[in-house]
Every structure is written in structure tokens, then in C-alpha cells.
């Protein structure tokens, strides 16, 4: 029996090894086909943005997006397609968002509320604006100094290929209104955290510290923010007065959900490869770049890997709900599945422009696999980076499991022109670049899904069945 | 006495001739200074867009723009600055503009009313949309076939350096809603007449034929129009239903006005050189490109010509009112001044990008002057075109007088990305290109304002005083 088992293992490993090497050319050929003529990804994002459009977390529109995505996945042959429900605290933007400078000049400004913003009284309020060039300037303002005033907070974000200026400017939105409120401000407006010059503000979530009552908080479009700053220069010290009216509100707990689907592997008891994106968007855009494209890319790649031959491991797609308003879906997925090991997690949530750099968090622990992936994606113009992958927002489960992560970094030079604005529409997606994403993902996911050993360490896989443990 | 007069004339002409030739290098030097460091034009357009902003024709905002412009012109040393009033029929956009596809998919579309649009009933109406790819397709629809429906009219405008695709696509807006109304439509929406892909519709005037009752008529942003077209493709023949709500209205006769100012010439009895622009904008943008920049360019050029030495002829700037809603100011100016000869008219109303081509309507009647101007602007990258200048919208008086016209054609590749949209903001102006405009205008206006003979024919000027008629 022992000999038989050993022989079986040997046979199995040999066959796997053969499959793995034999599969590489098939996989590469499929990735090249994806590069040249993938239609799945465009079909997904075109359909989602046309038939559903904006899909704010926790609303009926997000529920329609889940239903639409599930129908699409089933139609394309995904197995175990499901909507895994969770509840969340839901904020909605309302339908009034007005800002008007009333003195020393009179002019409307284009504003949108930030997620978690409070409402103004009906009819709005008018108050003097205090101008802060940076969040640090706001932090330095004396306690109580903003009593009865509206804080305006600026920044100098620039396009960066790696998206790093989001970290540079993001605090203006993330914490600016909360700091202003804690110093007595009755409202806050920020220069949109973005890099374009269209009259479409960048919304996004903000938060208020414990014990600080939320205030109305909005984003001005960049042209409007710059105009407001010029008004300060021309005001000659006279107070700049702003009238602000918005009616967003918290509507309490509502249902959201994570959509999952699988390409079942030859050995479904092996930990799966998890591909993540998010299905929700802000209310103000059809969410083509953020993140319809991501869901399109991961789903298309899974289909191409399957087309090259049934993979060893199961590939699971996670179209997370309610990412934008606080990673509700990511946390719910981790809570529900923390005891089910994930082999490796990868996420697409940075638009649809070309992937230019590959990172993993197993460069040192599993150098052979890291190098093999780097070599495989080089032909698509993807370099081997120097940093450790940290994974996207919807990969909480992998971080919670301290598992393997890969980042396939997309070119971010255009991303913050569109991020969280009404301009995030289908026409912004370049089909050629979208297909490059699908091709790179096909290569990477195909290699990972056919890898018998542990992704993170290259060693045996604790949770794998006995037959795998040589 | 006669001998004395003849001597005086000879002296005067000699001095003029000397001045004219001596002035060319001075003028050229001044134009180069303008190219390198003009500040007048930026100061004008920055101030107008910051301190006034949107200035819809016939409203208090347009009145503030006139007051602001007059103060600026006086401050810079223009003489005879005046606000010449006229009355006009005024349309205002209201504050509600909503469009939502309700079936077979549900999604909001971004819409703005067109000038002269009627209002919907409060709460809006819902109707089936009929899709026309072109105005000609709409024209071919049977009479009465649109009864109770909303017409959607598309086009395929592309950027064109000479702006000629405005003529290609413009009829969609100019006459589309009127044709739809005449065939029974209760509403019309058009693909914005523009070339960008931002969620900011291009408004602009439309008109309804005599006897046809105006209907609600709006422009969808180009991403929204394309989305609507994709919905038709995905609807599988099911009716596409649109809910439309808008509340624009006609408010009857209001006061507008033309702002004028002069650099007085050495011989103010000679017909002046008329430089035109318009001071009004649509309500939805600060009108930086359209046409704050134009008023900035002509005013700055007049100041630079003066700086090079008092010109022979008076230079008059005309900052026309109410151009956008029907050339009210242009017609009022011609009506008021038709008996006062204009030497030549030039207009700037096509943004602030580089001038690339020069045209006149005296190429054949006054070839020497035409060639002299063409040679003078060549150093600024301006070619000698092949067509006859027709003049801008605010030069009605020159056309009515059958006078001399010059077109200094600006690069229009970006113009219809911005035209009549909220995106027409100061940041769209490239200061380097703006200064090139001022430099070219300085050369051209300087030559014309120092030209003793008739601009149109090169012959003597009938309305000039005796001393000029050699």
C-alpha cells in the first residue's frame, strides 16, 4: 500500500510536472490571443456601464450590478456563482449640492459632497471661508479658531505613474474635514483630490474622529478650487463668503453583497487563487475605470486560463461590494472565509491603462516562482519591481491570513483625472491597453493556478491533501 | 494760402510716411515684447473670470461684466469708454435639468438646456426616445411620426484645426429641435456639438421655425449620448424610455449693452480700426475661451500699438453684449453706427490657442497691404491663407458697410472640447499661446492703424478729411 501510494504520488507529480511545463506554451499562446483579440473584458465593462451605470454601495443600483454580474459570470461558464450578503451602514449623497461665493465677488462653484458628509440646513448656510494651503496648515490652526467658519483645504497633487501622489494629497479628503470640524468649523470644502481640470469634482470618503459631529463636507472641482484661491488673492483681505447647501444623509443599515464565481481546478482541495475587484462605484459615474475595468480584467483572465486547459487550482473571482464607502465587502469576505486558505491574492483596481510593473511579497521566500512570473510578463512590457506587494483594498482576507500577494501595477498617469468623478465613463478605456491587462493577468494567473507548491514559500502546502505532500 | 496748404500737406504726408516706415521696427519690437511678456491679456481674462465669472446675456451678471470691463479699460488708459445700451429678448436656463433613462435600463444622463428651450411640466415627462443618426435622418422622418415622443439626434463631429466641423455638426443643435417639434416631438435631446468626452454638455442656441411651438430641448454630454446609443443597441428593439425635466424660460425684454473704448489716433477723423469680441458667456462657465480671451487679446493689442507710438487712426474696441443668444449686440452696434465708416474690422472669438493663418477680403483689391501684413506676421508662425476673410459674429457693421475684414485664425483643435461647456475656465488658457495672439494682433492692428490709404482698396478714403486726399 505504501509502495502503491508512493508510486501514485510519483506518477501524479510527474504528470503535474509534465502538465506544468507543457502548459506554459499553451498559456503563453492564450495570453497572446488575449492581447490581440480578447472580447470578454470589453464586453463586461461595456455591459455593466451601459445596462447598470452608477452603483453606489448599499443601494438598489449596487444590487442590480450584482445581479448583472452574476448573470454574466454564469453565462460565461463560471461555477459556484453566488451573492454573499452582508449588511453595512449606508450613506447617500442626496440631490442638492450647491456652492456660491457671495462676497467680495459673486460666482457659483461646482461642488459634490464627500462620503459621510453631513447635510446643511435646508436652504444652506453662508459663512466666511478660511483658506489652508495644506492639511498641515489646518492642523496648526488654533483650537476653536474655525468656529462658525468654513474651512477650505488645498494641495498640490500631480500625476504620478505609480499613483503615489494619492498618498501625498489624499489626507486633504480623508482627514481634512474631520480636523476642521474638531476646530469648530461648520463646513469644509476641499480642492478635489485629483489631477484634471474639468468641472467635475472628485468625491470619495471622508471620516470624522470619534466624538466629533460630522459637518457638511464637499469637493470643489479643480478649476473651481483654483478660482476660489484667486478670489482670495484679489479680495485684498476682505472676507470671502461662501453659501453652501447639500443634503446627503446616512440611511442606516442596508444589504450589500460580494459576488463570487469560480473556475474549478483539477484539485479543488488546493487553496485557490483569489482574483479581486469591486463592483460598487460612487453615485456620480458609471465606474468604468473604478472598477468596472478591474472586474472585467480578472474575469476575462480567468476565462483565458481555463481556455488554455483546466488549471490545477481553482481560480476564484471576488467582485467585492461596498469598497468605496469603507471596504465593507473586503472585511465581510475575510470574516466569512478566514479559515479557508487562499494560495495567493491579486487585485485589479487602478483603471485600465497598461500594466508596467510586477511586484510580489515572495521575492525572497520563493525566488524561483517570482523570477518565473517576472520572466513570463516581460514580453508584455512589464518590469520586475523592487518593492514588496501589499495587495489591493479587497484582499483583506489574504493580509489577514499573511498569505501571498501580487501587484500588477497599472500606469496611473491618467487615473486621478477620472477617479471618483462623473468623467469615469466607458470612453476613457483604451481597448488596446485593456487587452494588455488581460494578457498579463492570463499569464500570471495561469502560472499561479498551475503551481503545485506553496506560492508564498515554494514549500509544501499545509492544507493540501496527503497526495500532494511529498 | 494754397501754397501754404500744399506745403503743409506735403510736410504732413512726409511726416506720416516717415512715421509709417519708422514705426514698423518700433511696432515689431513692441510685438516681440508682447510675445515675450505681455501681461495685459492675462490680467484681463484672469480678472474677468475670477471677479465676474459666468455672464449670461441680458442678466445682472452680464451687467457686472460690462462694469468690470469698463473699469479695466479706463484704468489702462482707453478713451471714450462707454456702455451703449440696447434691449433684447432674454432667455434664462432655470435651475433644473434632469434626464433619466427609465427602460429598458435605468440610469441618469447629464443634460443641459439649449438656449430658447421650453420648459417641461413640473416633475418632467417620460416618453419613448426615437434615435436619429443625423439631422438628415430626422428630416426624412414622416410628418407626425414623432407625436408624443422625444427625438434624440446624433452626429460625428471631429476636431478640425480650422473649426470647420462646427458647420458639419452644428445643425444638430441649430435646427434639430425645431424640426423634431414640427414633426410632433414633445422634446428633443442632442449629442452635444463638441469633441470632448467629459460629462459637461455643450449648450448653445437653438431656434424654432415660425409657427412651431418651442419644446424642451437639451444637450447630453458626449459620454452620455454614446451611452444612450449603446442602450439602443442593447435594447433588442424594446422602447428606450427617457424622463426629462427642465425649467428654462423666456423672461421678456431686458437691458444689455455694448462696451466700447478707444485709443484715439493722430487723425481721429479717419475711419477707425474696429477690434471686436463679445463680453457675454453662457451661464454655465466663466467664458475664458469664449470669449474672455478674445476681449483680452484685442484690448492688450490696442495697448501695445499705443505703446509703440500714437497710431494714425483711432483704434476702437467693441466688447459686444449678448452675442451667444443671437448677436443682439452686433446688430445693435450696426444699427447705431451704420453711418460712421469703419476702416477695417477684426474679431477674436475662437479661444486663445495659437494663430496659424491670416486671411483678408482685400487680397485682390489692395494686394500691397495684404502682402505687407502677411510678411509681418510670418515671423510669428502665421501663414498667408487662400480664402477671403468673412469676419466674426460681432462685425455686422463692417459687413453691412461692405468694408474691409481680416481673420486671424486661431488653432481650433481644442476649441470644441470647451465651447459652451462648464469646462471653459481660465486654466484652459495657455499663457504662451495667449501672448502669441497678442503679438500677432499688435503687428496687424499696428499696421492697419498707421495706414493712411483705404484698407479695402488702397485708394484714397472718401470719408477722410481733405488734407489726406492727395
Describe the overall structure.
Chain A has 470 residues and is of the alpha/beta class. Helix content of chain A is 36%, strand content 22%. Chain A is built from 14 helices and 16 strands. In chain A, the strands form two sheets. An eight-stranded mixed sheet of chain A has the order 1-10-12-11-13-16-14-15, with helices on both faces. The first copy, chain A, has an eight-stranded mixed sheet with strand order 3-2-9-5-6-7-8-4, sandwiched between helices. In chain A, a hairpin with a 3-residue loop joins strand 2 and strand 3 (107-109). The A-B interface holds A 46-47, 49-54, 61, 64, 105-108, 110, 197-200, 222-223, 226-227, 230-231, 234, 285-286, 421-423, 425-428 and B 46-47, 49-54, 61, 64, 105-108, 110, 197-200, 222-223, 226-227, 230-231, 234, 285-286, 421-423, 425-428.
The CATH superfamily of the largest domain in chain A turns out to be Zn peptidases
Number of helices of chain A: 14
Rg value of chain A: 24 Å
Strand content of the residues of chain A, in percent?
15-25%
Describe the structure in brief:
The structure is a homodimer of 470-residue chains. With 470 residues, chain A is of the alpha/beta class.
